Amino acid sequence: MRQPSAGPVLSISSVMTQPGVLETGTALRSSPPPRSPPLSAVPPMTAEALVEQLHVKLATHPFWEKPLLKACRRGHLSREDYALVFSQYALLLGSHTRFLHALVAQCETEPERIRLTQTLWEEVGLTPEKRPAALFRRFLKDGLGVNADSIRFQDATRYFVRECLDTCLGASQSSASAFVTLGMEALVPRLYSIFVDGLLQANVSDRYLPFFYWHMAASPGRISNLEALVLSHAHEPGWADTCLSAMERALELHGNFLENLFEAVQHRRLRPLLERIQARTPLTPEHPDPGTLHLEDLSNVLSFYQHAHEEEGIDFSVDRVPFPSEVLETNVVRVAPGHTTELREHAHEVLLVVMSGRGRIHVRGTEVEVKPGDAVFVPRWAANQARSLGPEALTLLTVTDHGFTRLAHDEEVLRAMKLKRATGVDL
């Protein structure tokens, strides 16, 4: 078997010249490109040490900053969002043993095949109800309400899995083993930890997550077995570059898959609204209740939010006008005499109509004096603040497109979920 006990001594000059590859655990500058040092100046490294360098590169790879993973960490995704995400991941997870079988088919020696077969038997040797496939189906059904038998896989999902399988079948064994080991299996502990954290923030119960915990616990042993196969090719010319290229290719494919998933999540949120608009679906019956259309006085509102901070001069309340709208959101804001609202910016546009009182409205670098009957427009992402100047509260009727932006913008998704949990009001 071609597996050295301590690994051959290798030069890493070819790896060091790759943009962003780590030498001592610190990212190299990508501009200007680092010069390739003479071989005499590069300390020799064993194959094991070089693989460890690739793990360091993986830990700092831009892959971990993909929007979907950021949204997971920040708690921006809902249970429904995760239902979409993991319904698509089902194809990848169901194909993982196929990748390993493809590696087995390429093995030239019996010890290599035995080692990979042992990795496969970690799953097959379990009782049926404890196998990862069964755990994942229960997670989909009980945790996310997804019927695994009715999933329709997107084209981007099929492309991702097909490219992975083609690589395992068509690439050289050294490249395929690095692709699976360094570019796929080595992601599992950190990736699944991010998923678990996001699922818990979305109020998916911990009892539905044994699939992730099993893989996170089994991953070190699986990676160790697979890395032995990677190291068995360390004597081959250009082996270090082969490992790096294979890992980068796997991360590129997976990263593109995550980006497509994030776009699908955003589209899922907006699709029902857009479909109702295109279908000309009314949001009200033939003869709607006048109370759902007409605000006779400001007492017919729903108490929603209050904030007071005497030292900062902030004292205001927000009441929601319960119109049955999908895009517009109407609120009544009351600013106590001599006080202000918070200075803030937001993803939605706002129209402010002064109902009573006098005050000053700050919109970015401009301030205007307002009186009853005045209207002020606040563009999205423009810092704004209202101050009450008279002896009575400044009362503002605010109309926003928050019904749309809470679906289209991640921060607003999170804000809407938090406010719903805190107030019980479905925005």
From N to C, what is the helix and strand string? EHEHHHHHHHHHHEEEEEEEEEHH
The coarse overall form would be elongated
Number of strands: 11
* Percent of residues in beta strands: 5-15%
Q: What is the terminal separation in angstroms?
A: 64 Å
What would the average pLDDT be, to the nearest integer? Answer: 85
Pfam family, one: Cupin_2
InterPro entries: Cupin_2, Haem_Oase-like_multi-hlx, PqqC-like, RmlC-like_jellyroll, RmlC_Cupin_sf
Keywords: Oxidoreductase
Protein name: Cupin domain-containing protein
Set down the secondary structure blueprint.
Elements: E1 9-10, H1 13-16, E2 45-46, H2 47-59, H3 67-74, H4 79-106, H5 110-124, H6 132-144, H7 155-170, H8 173-183, H9 188-201, H10 210-231, H11 239-278, E3 302-309, E4 314-320, E5 329-335, E6 350-356, E7 359-363, E8 366-370, E9 375-378, E10 384-388, E11 394-400, H12 402-408, H13 410-423
Antiparallel strand pairs: 1-2, 3-4, 4-5, 5-11, 6-9, 6-11, 7-8, 7-10
Helix pairs in contact: 2-11, 3-9, 4-5, 4-6, 4-7, 4-8, 4-11, 5-10, 6-10, 7-8, 7-11, 8-10, 8-11, 9-10, 12-13
Protein name: Cupin domain-containing protein
Pfam family, one: Haem_oxygenas_2
Keywords: Oxidoreductase
